[in-house]
Design goal:
Layout lengths: L4 E3 L2 E3 L3 H16 L20
Antiparallel strand pairs: 1-2
Length: 51
Amino acid sequence: MDLKLKVDGKEIPLNEFVEKILNGTITGAITSLRGIKEDWSKIEIEITKSA
């Protein structure tokens, strides 16, 4: 799996450990939701900090 992290448009490099942790956490949480098929191809998450 390929994972990219961007903060305010700037791509943040991730080491292998952090990439594995984020991949496992995000895909585990998403795939446990009802209605998500096992053959998904892309997950997009956008988080905006409120003022």
